[in-house]
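Handout for the seminar on molecular recognition.
Each group receives one record of this type.
Step one: identify the two inputs.
Step two: read the structure output and locate the region that could contact magnesium ion.
Step three: write two sentences on what you found, then compare them with the reference statements printed after the record.
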Amino acid sequence: MSTARDILAVEKVNKSFHDPVTVQVLKDVAFSVARGEFVSITGKSGCGKSTLLYILSTMDTDYQGDVVIDDERTHGLDGERLAAIRNEKIGFVFQFHYLLPEFSVLRNVMLPGLKLGRKDAAEVEADAMERLRELDMADQALKMANQLSGGQKQRVAIARALINDPLIIMGDEPTGNLDKRNADTVFGIFQRIAAEHRRSLLIVTHDPDFAARTDRNIVMDDGRIVG
Ligand SMILES: Nc1ncnc2c1ncn2[C@@H]1O[C@H](COP(=O)(O)OP(=O)(O)OP(=O)(O)O)[C@@H](O)[C@H]1O
Ligand SMILES: [Mg+2]
């Protein structure tokens, strides 16, 4: 029996930065994302979107409230457990992609799969090539990551985020550097992941067309959810 259970629950998250002065950038942020749901987040520059994603991805632990991922409360867990949750359950595409420049494209995509150790290297490589093919990047697989254009790097970062088949994919403007055709390709892949594989997506975007086509759009303003 599968019901639309929540993969992510955000419980009253508050966050302040203290340097140079104390400023509260997240205010009572609460929402949840169901299994298979494709959710977008929009809002003006500086309203707190990246700060929120950083907390939800378990990278930032300095906040009030709690974040529940796949029924596990994450606030206060030790670094080792958080790293395991990130590697197993979450795929990220950040605003600025962090590919390892001295490794090949293929190796970059494979790394989280090798680290997880659920499959042997040959299987991880086959999966990585399949992801790269979907993103029209298979012919670039053996290039070094620093030999790619910005949009190509972004597509590799997306392939890497998908390699472990995570329960939820979080993206900070993953299509920001892409032309319309590639942005549409990525949107289609996200949609298919949600509909066919029942994975959840939480994607920050400045593109109103992208947001309008997702299952639900969360609007933020000055650290709060307003719609
Ligand atoms: N390390 C930090 N120290 C102090 N203030 C910060 C820090 N990081 C972010 N801020 C502030 O927190 C607020 C929210 O920033 P955030 O990066 O989350 O915005 P955003 O919604 O992602 O904006 P954008 O759409 O431009 O990416 C901004 O006012 C920003 O200046
Ligand atoms: Mg941002």
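Reference statements: The longest strand covers residues 6-17. The radius of gyration is 17 Å.
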